[in-house]
Amino acid sequence: MPKLKRIMFATLIMVANISYAELSQHALETFNHEPEVIRALLIRAAEAELDVKNVDSDWQAARLYCQASRLGSAEAQYRLGMLYASGKGVPANRHLAASMFATASLQGHYESQKMLETVELNMVELPACVVSEVEPEQAPTEPARSDNIDQYLAGLSKDKRWILQLVDTISAWYQVDPKLVLTIISVESNFATGVQSNKQAQGLMQLIPDTAERFNVKNAFNASQNIKGGVAYLRWLLAYFKGDVALAVAAYNAGEGTVNKYNGIPPFPETRQYVKKIQARYPIKNHRFDGAITEPSPIFKRRG
Questions:
Q1: Burial tier of 36 (Cβ tally within 10 Å: 0-12, 13-18, 19+)
Q2: Three-class SS string for 178-198?
Q3: Which DSSP category does 207 fall into?
Q4: Cα dihedral across residues 237, 242, 247, 249: positive or negative
Q5: Strand partners, 244
Q6: What is the DSSP string of 124-138?
Q7: I want to staple 215 with a disulfide (CB 3.0 to 4.6 A). Which of 23, 155, 229, 291 is the partner?
Q8: Domain boundaries in the chain?
Q9: Right CATH for 144-303 from 1.10.530.10, 2.60.40.1120, 1.10.287.3610, 2.60.40.740
């Protein structure tokens, strides 16, 4: 596949993943056109894809899409194709993805037709789980590659190891677990002090300008200032979400207002994958917190 086509292919995968995760109402309306048995399978599969607490959730979704695909659902065939295209839950395989898009296209599935135009592959070999009642092959999960932050840090280059002592010192000031801070740095910047995102997030802990100003960070590219501001924000989030690490790190990525709006981890693929990455390296679910720092999130009042 030419390089430009591969880029377009990857972009379409990303857009498609974002669209059906965020537009859950649209997905439900699509599912409502299916027979009840297939509809139930699709709903369970879509819910599995949004489950950040289960590292096998994408593979569980693939299993369910395989079942619905065998029953003739074009929507399931398309969604299974997307999993093969992106390597979520099942090993990445553009050929199997193309065969699923082609199968769904024969039933007039519009999104599959668009994907086929981009892939430019005409494949007839279907995944074994679509042809017969067998389990799909499972892709390696994130924890299998890096199941804790210690394993990641063991491979950290010497020119970045000075950051570890700085994190230990500042984390102790704020009574935040340094391993959680190091995990966030590993995911946010890979220990690069001068990195800046397209959203203007800067430095080791990727502070956006508003957060930097909120926690009195004058130079976000200064490592000590950046870590101090990031850890101060993290301490505040842990207090706000009563020590719930998943909610706190989701808010670190998407903002506490967004987490409040969705009454939990937002349905955005970026945020959910971010939480998964953090949990893979830092599996602790609850962190100590200082309740005197702030009033808790309204989420807890809603939950009773």
A1: exposed
A2: HHHHHHHHHHHCCCCCCCECC
A3: B
A4: positive
A5: 286
A6: -PPPHHHHSS-PPPP
A7: 229
A8: 3-140, 144-303
A9: 1.10.530.10
**Residue 188 designated active-site:** yes
Say yes or no to pLDDT of 21 above 60: no
Helical axes 269-281 vs 245-254, angle rounded to 10°: 130
Q: Give the global pTM.
A: 0.56
54 three-class SS: coil
Cβ contact 244:234 at 8 Å: no
Catalytic residue selected from 29, 188, 270, 295: 188
- Whole-angstrom Cα distance, residue 21 to residue 34? 19
H helices, E strands: number in the chain? 18, 0
Q: 137-152 burial, b if ≥16 CB within 10 A, otherwise e?
A: eebebeeeeeeebeeb
- Give the pLDDT of residue 119: 60
246-277 core/surface letters (b: 16 or more CB in 10 A; e: else): bbbbbbbbbbbeebbeeebbbbbbebbbbbbb
- The second-level CATH assignment, the architecture, of 3-140 is Alpha Horseshoe (1.25)
116 or 236: which carries more pLDDT confidence?
Answer: 236
Radius of gyration of the chain (CA): 21
Model confidence pLDDT, tens digit, residues 58-110: 899 999 999 999 999 999 999 998 888 878 889 988 889 889 999 999 999 98
